[in-house]
What we know:
By secondary structure, this protein is an all-alpha fold. The chain has a domain at 36-95: Orthogonal Bundle (Histone, subunit A). It contains six helices and no strands. It has helices at residues 2-15, 20-28, 38-62, 65-68, 73-82, 99-129. Helix 2 (20-28) packs across helix 3 and helix 3 crosses helix 5. The relative contact order is 0.06. The model has no long low-confidence stretch (mean pLDDT 81). Residues 109-130 are annotated as: Disordered. Pfam families: CBFD_NFYB_HMF (PF00808). GO terms for molecular function: DNA binding; nucleotidyltransferase activity; protein heterodimerization activity. Its main location: nucleus. Residues 17-78 form the Transcription factor CBF/NF-Y/archaeal histone domain.
Amino acid sequence: AEMAAARLSGTENRLVSLPLSRIRVIMKSSPEVSSINQDALFLTAKATELFVQYLATYSYKHGRGKEKNALTYTDLSHTAEECETFQFLADILPKKILASKYLKMLEKEKRDGELREDNDEGEEEEDEDE
């Protein structure tokens, strides 16, 4: 109880740098969450902060950040793609590509989809003959 009282009096600002009010809003956005214990809020904030630090440090050390003395988005997306621990972030940190390349990919997906639909229709017609 003493630690909870200390956090409530404002010392949590020194223990965690992420805004607790924002984290509370994010946690409450989940339909399964009805109430949030102050300790759970603090621990979630601290764990998130440590995770972000780990991701940044790993990406800096294993990316090109050391050469430029900077952490770049490319370093982060490379980590998400290459490191098994961080692969769950691949959708959130996609590799940057040019818009023209993306449009070509969309066009190819559309053509492939149309080809698949044509094949599916052909299979259905064969089934009807049997």
